[in-house]
Amino acid sequence: MPDVPIHPTPHVPDVTAPKVAAQRSRGSLILIAALVTVVLWASAFIGIRGAGPHFDPGALALLRMAVGAVALSILALRHGIRLPARRHWLLVVVWGVGWFCIYNLALNSAERTLDAGTAAMVVNLAPLMVVVFSGLFLREGFPKPLLIGAPIAFLGVVLIGMNSHTSAGLDITGLLLALLAAVMYAGCTLVQKHLLTSGVDATTLTWLGAIAGTVALLPWAGRLVADLQTAPLDATLWVVYLGIFPTAIAFTTWAYVLQRSTAGQTSATTYVVPAIAILMSWMILGEVPTLMMFIGGALCLLGVLVTRMRRRPAVSDDGEHRARGLRW
């Protein structure tokens, strides 16, 4: 009986491996950028505490944005400036004025009459607003992890706020200003996401927005000159820090994450900020948090982890992708 030749099975290259590796690398970069953003934004609370008593809210915002605009100009030149299409220019200016001028003014003014905990509770309504409105207007839907995790994180912010509340009483004007800051936060996040998905370069957008916000703050230039003459050097250095790190660097990494994630997930990530701010206040200012503040911080972290859960696709033998479990 003649031997039947046996042909070896041809080697089929695993085409999914490079894609998986690329996705993991991209996910790591997004995670690092998100961590940089929340840590630097948390440190801004320390900076505002150090500079706020010596600067008018408008003067503080102007100096911070002037320094930030210079730093962002350097970043934009190194990255390569790619101007948006003319049809986007007006919206870019409106976004910049809202995010870098009105938001800063509202928050700085609110914290002059509200304690930090109450201000944080009100401002952190913004991520919940983003979750709802991005699902409705940006067609991001309402993923269950986001709908579950965001309220958990907000509950943590409420616990932190309730336990840091002072006995100064509730100021209605300050409350309304904090609410205005929350609305500007949510609205500007949605506008920025729209601009990024329309092809506007993230670094150039941040740079142009910072310039627009700085120009809008110029009416406070006279007050800034006066405050600089009386403010101690360490307070001025705190504002310089705010301009370079929580503004220029953090808003650049924020844009990077927002361009590659949904608006709802990105904004919900900022619920980590109060938890990190508690630890920084403990280490730098010696402000020991209460047990309930620790619990609130843990809820913030838990809620953010839940919002980052997503289904992991599995690849079957025939190459078909199927949902399999959940991953972070």
UniProtKB/TrEMBL annotation:
Q: Which UniProt keywords apply?
A: Membrane, Transmembrane, Transmembrane helix
Q: Does the keyword Flavoprotein apply?
A: no
EamA domain location is 30-161, 173-307
Its transmembrane ranges are 29-52, 58-77, 89-107, 119-138, 145-166, 172-192, 204-226, 238-256, 268-285, 291-307
**Top-level taxon:** Bacteria
Recorded family membership:
Belongs to the EamA transporter family.
Q: What is this protein called?
A: Membrane protein
Q: What is the lineage of its organism?
A: Bacteria, Bacillati, Actinomycetota, Actinomycetes, Micrococcales
